[in-house]
Amino acid sequence: MNNIATQRIKREFKEVIKSEELAKCSIKVDLVGDSYTELKGEVAGPPDTPYEGGTFFLEIKVPETYPFNPPKVRFMTKIWHPNISSVTGAICLDILKDQWAAAMTLRTVLLSLQALMAAAEPDDPQDAVVAKQYKEFPEIFAKTASHWTNVYAGGPKKNIEFDSKIQRLIDMGIERDHACAALSSYNWDLERATEQLFS
Amino acid sequence: MASYFEERNVNENEETNDRIQRLTRETFRMIFDQDPYQYDNIVNNQITPPASKSEIDKLKIVSHDKLLGEQCPICLSPYQLEQKALTMPCDHVFHEECLKTWLKKSNFCPLCKLELGTDNELYELYKKELKNRQIRERNIEELHNSMFS
User: Fold this and answer.
1) Looking at residue A1, what is its pLDDT?
2) Is the model's pLDDT at B45 over the cut of 90?
3) What's the whole-number mean pLDDT along residues B128-141?
4) Extended strands (E) in B1-149
5) Which residue spans of chain A are classified as CATH 3.10.110.10?
């Protein structure tokens, strides 16, 4: 990798390690392998959101042209959020695209992602199904997001009703992740989710 | 019965700034419908073109004694004696090489987003239109306030 990119990532590493946020366990970066081209990020779900108590892992790819182009970031932990794909983890955030500026760092990216988790922008969605639920059924959205945090990110809030509906679909031979995704998409309407899965 | 606003798909609660942006976008679409690609880049994706060469040439060199112990916000390394540093009109300083590489891609300051001029006529026109509308809106507001307060 080009020298300026590597050098900068090394410096940024130190910045994140020294930062207050690391001390509070809210953000973290780790190396993947020996090169500085691929990193693993970690953000804690912000308090007073459905993501509270969860730990979310991120795949960070640093391009050759960094910091003149933004890093490529994707959620590896499954998450239910209007601006993040529930299937691929792709993120819709302006600073990761055309609003990137060369003075931004891994720390600012991770903090922006945390801010995005606390304040979604449903009018600029990445996942249309999630965004629709967020706008039309905010309570179901919050419960669903909280459930996903419990199942995939180690969050504390168990939802017994949702768990039993997922179990019903598993008993019918559906894989757990598919069952959870289908039920979430159909606002936990078991009948409609079943219909969609078997159609 | 649907209200006047509903029928015309108008959001009564739209913020002034949002309305100005929306109207500018719409006007712009009509003017530039022969170049949808550019329109998409500038208006929808808000991709800024590179700074113009003449604007980059105008940037002033910063003397080294002012930069002791400081680091360039782009590469995050300290300023060395043999490296030149440039300042943007907003007083933000960067290595010459770092800043010039950045300005070949985008026209704004990496720290505060202050914009430099570009060679892209379409973009400059759009910016001007947006600014004029904002000035007009402010004038109307001032006039209104002077009459009713």
Assistant:
1) 54
2) no
3) 87
4) 60-62, 85-87, 93-95
5) 3-118
For chain B, the domains span: 35-126
Shortest CA gap A186–chain B (Å): 28
Work out the burial of residue B115: count CB atoms within 10 Å of its CB; fewer than 13 is exposed, 13-18 middle, 19 or more buried.
Answer: middle
Cα–Cα distance between B51 and B107 in angstroms, integer?
4
Distance CA B36, CA A38 (A): 36
The CATH H-level superfamily of A3-118 is: Ubiquitin Conjugating Enzyme (3.10.110.10)
Q: Report pLDDT digits (tens) over A9-67.
A: 988 887 777 777 776 768 888 888 888 899 999 999 999 999 999 999 999 999 999 99
Give the helix/strand (H/E) hosting A40. Answer: strand A38-44
Segment holding A112, helix H or strand E: helix A106-118
- Please give the ipTM for the structure prediction: 0.79
Which residues in chain B are closer than 8 Å to A98, comparing Cβ atoms?
45-48
Give CATH superfamily name and number for B35-126: Zinc/RING finger domain, C3HC4 (zinc finger) (3.30.40.10)
Q: Residue B110: its chain A contacts at CB < 8 A?
A: 101-104
When scoring A36, A69, A98 by the number of chain B Cβ atoms within 10 A, the one with the most, hence best to mutate, is A98
* A92 assigned to active site: yes
Nearest to B75 among A8, A97, A98 (CB): A8
What residues does A44 pair with on adjacent strands? A55
- Chain-centre distance for alpha carbon A171: 29
